[in-house]
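Hi R.,

As promised, here are both runs. First protein below:
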Amino acid sequence: MGTVELSRAMWIKATMQFAAEETTRYAIVNTSATTSDIETYATNVVSTYGVSTTNMTFSATSSATIVSITITYTFSTIIPLLSIPDISLNAKSQLPLSAS
């Protein structure tokens, strides 16, 4: 049972990291996107892979030179017999918008 939960946590973490990286690429191509647009895009990418975004927090920042997205999630086991404490999962991606 523990292996299943560990695998699920790793899958969610990998999906979050992929979404963060895809979202920064999106922001580079769509320079007129607002931080709200960027956060919505990240939410959609995570959802596409079947991960629930209910307890996820998406935070985007964008300046004239850098775009950054951070995704956080508190992982809880779905198997009641395991007494594993909640685990905080984080993913972040940051890229420059232009070569300086």
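And here is the second one, sequence first, then its structure tokens:
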Amino acid sequence: MKAGKKRDRLFEPVQKRERVYAGSYLNLDRLTIRLPNGKKAFREIVNVRNAVAVLPVDKDGTAYLVRQHRPAIKRTIIEIPAGVVDSKRESLEKCARRECEEETGIIPGRLRRLLTYSHAEGYSTGFITLFLATNLRHTGKLNLDQTEFLEQVKMPYAKLLRMIEKGGIVDSKTILCAMLSRRYLPF
């Protein structure tokens, strides 16, 4: 331990790591850990690539979102465009621009990084970085993956905020991004 650094009393050192599942998007590891009281316990950890999400908003206050089905929660929901970072060489900003254009046909002129957060810290390694996109250029060209089926949705930014407040938006990245964007938008 480095001089001057205190050991975290809640730290759980990993005694053993076992790969339980390896997939194309995620891997699942079962960890044997040592609890702070010295006893052994297990943790299941989902390893995923980091992601970005972006809320495009026009100068007139129109927000551009997508609607797609999410089998894990058995619902079709409205959310902001998002996706995983393709490689270690792809910057978060480049990924945000790519995902925004692929899913909405919009190229952001300006991206404002809002927040990076752990979306499921109890069991996942993944972090999502949120962006607000402004100065938009509409190309109308979508470039969806072969397994990606979604619809474009546009609505006033104020309506998006009302939907969040009434529970009509359940996606955490959309809720956080919309709420954090308020301070940068004039409407």
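A quick note on the second one: The first helix runs from residue 92 to 104. Let me know what you think.

Best,
J.
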